[in-house]
Amino acid sequence: MRTKYFLLLLCLIGVSCTTSEEKISRKAERMHDSFLSIDTHSDTPMRLTRGGGFDPGIRNDRGCVDFPRMKEGRLDAEFFAIFLGQGPRTPEAFEKVHMQTLATFDSIYATLARNSSMAAIALTPEDAQRNKEQGKVSVFIGIENGYPLGNDLSRIKQYYDLGSRYITLCHSSNNDICDSSADKTGPEHNGLSAFGEEVVREMNCVGMMADVSHISDESFYDVLAVSKAPVIASHSSCRALCESPRNLDDDMLQALKKNGGVIQICILSDYLRQPEPNPAYEEKAKALREKWSAMGELTDEQQEQRWAEYSALRQEYVRLATVEDAVNHIEHVVDVIGIDYVGIGTDFDGGGGLQDCPDVSMMKNITKELIRRGYSRDEIAKIWGGNFSRVMREAQSLAVSQ
Ligand SMILES: [Zn+2]
User: Fold this and answer.
1) How many A from CA of 109 to the centre of ligand 1?
2) 194-206 helix and 154-161 helix, angle to the nearest 10 degrees
3) Rounded to the nearest whole angstrom, what is the distance from the C-alpha of residue 220 to the centroid of ligand 1?
4) 94 and 218 inside one domain
5) What is the pLDDT of residues 74-114, one digit of tens each?
6) Domain span at residue 292?
7) What SS3 class is residue 238?
8) Could you tell me the distance, in angstroms and rounded to a whole number, from the CA of residue 140 to the centre of ligand 1?
9) How confident is the model over 15-36, as pLDDT tens digits?
10) 10 occurs within a structural domain
């Protein structure tokens, strides 16, 4: 008899859990219908230029971003970051990487032309809103690494006119603009170089947002001292919760608030939760590295295959961070500097992805967790793009007023 009641109770609990989960899911969908959602960093253009026939117009089972999956995840706008790996700092290399940048712009626009019924470029938050009303997802463009500027300030306006709205000042190595947070040789300029100061001023003039993700702490404070416009960290998380030079500490968050900028929480697992020692994974990853480096120069298809093998290995051996971890970082920013300075920049197709949000089709799970924690519709709208849109508008109106 007792067992019967127990089973009945379990059944009722099960039913009520499902019902409340469904309710939260529907609430999240209604919310997404009512505001503009923007992810400020994906490396998806790498997949466009790498060959292998990637088409974001069809639903893919590889990679993290395509237009049908953006619709499923209720994400309205994705920043396609044109990533440029750091190479030699010579006139020839600068010219070569500049041409590579232009070619990537071309492939983004060709992709959008092929999928014009489904997706369109956005240059302002208003463009993205209009695209949403027409049932289309939006692609914004950013540039990850100021390396292709070489020593030529005029390229900032050139890239802006081509549609880019931010430049991440450097990547994992120091460049002519500033020091990186990850360069193994240590600082070269002790922050922003003299040329870097000119770059930031020119970005202010043009309306191009300065992205402080990847740069060193000294570079960060130097950029804030020079920039008249609010800045963005397009994909960074909180150092208080996960020690990494890629993340911002609480003093940096305070400085960012003073500047009026915004931190877009990066959902790359190692920046959300301190990675645990994982010898089995390390051993397999080492073998994979050796296998691919022995093959010399790789074709586009081979590069795609290498990326797929690394992703599969991570999937099998690494316990990725979760949506709860990501929302802990959002909540930390809210606790330290308030609701007006935080957003989301996934780093999808560049290492970003969570156990329960591995690709863009699952983005709604972040909203569901924010609802569970008691955030209101207006607060969630700020996190999903309201704060970032404010910064973007301020950067653009400052440029017009100069
Ligand atoms: Zn990055």
Assistant:
1) 22
2) 40
3) 15
4) yes
5) 999 999 999 999 999 999 999 999 999 999 999 999 999 99
6) 277-318
7) strand
8) 16
9) 565 678 899 999 999 999 999 9
10) no
